[in-house]
Amino acid sequence: MKVAPRQIESFLSNIPAPVRAALLHGSDIGLIGERARKIAAHFSDDLDDVFSVTRLDGETLSSDPGALGDAAEALAMTATCRLVLVRGRGSEMLESCKLALTRNLETAFIIVEATETTTRHALVKLFETSDHAAAIGCYPDEARDIGTLLGEVLAQDNISITDDARAAAISRLGSDRAATRREIEKLALLAGPEGSLTFEDVSMALGDSATLAISDIAMAAADGKVDALEHAIDKAWSEQQASVTVLRGSQAHFRQLLQAARAMQKGGSAQQAVKSLRPPVHFRLQDRLTSQLRHWSADTLMDAVNRLQDAELAVKTGGANDTAICAQTMLGLCLRARALRG
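Given the sequence above, the corresponding structure tokens read:
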């Protein structure tokens, strides 16, 4: 089965009985790990228990395709369920997963973490089309998800945050769930129990330079401004920004635009769509996003997000110049924006 984004939290809270295997896939490695741990907690309270928990990796499954099924059918000595945890890239686990899903998994549960797949990958399709398995996409959080996580963490210590500080924090986070959580926890430590956070606090704690360099790249590409894009990319390379970080940050921007474009499809202007975004966009950025929405449609934005995801996968796979892949992808989006503007 394919677990839709709106169903993920419900699935993680109450895993359907027929499901005996779950695939966590996508580009947000931190989110993959976080969701894998939530699922594992349903079946074991001690993941270091070698008598009921088995850990395998992609290389092992590649050389021994039957290992996953054998591990799943092994008797759990200290629990009623044998939990099998697998980590790998993707393709090297396909044959092993095919074989495992044909085995008797009534007293087992398999969790597979795949870090180099897309929604079109054969491994993803295998889990999506199985009656006894589930595929869960783990991609960079949208603004709404970051806002929810921010609220949850700060609420634990009853910390208040101003609206512009919240917007600033959200605009600087989101490329990786684990990193996002760490940065929010850093903000909580800065404020202290019963404390508060201002725009200046957030800017100081999260830093401006690196984030603004990536934001400038995404903005220039969405605007269709080649000169500005070239300058922003040069700045990012001079600050030793990683290509994958630039691509993920750009994904976050185009996903935000996509959310607004979908709101426009329900009626209303670009300006109203931007103002409807939750958490709210910082007032300094609203006019810029409104202008971009006048030439980017939901379909073209979805295509842009897919191109950025494919580029990130190519960079993570290796074998090519990652900075060249990143720069070419951003230039392609920038030229697409120019064409759309007419």
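The mean pLDDT is 90. Try to locate this feature in the token string yourself.
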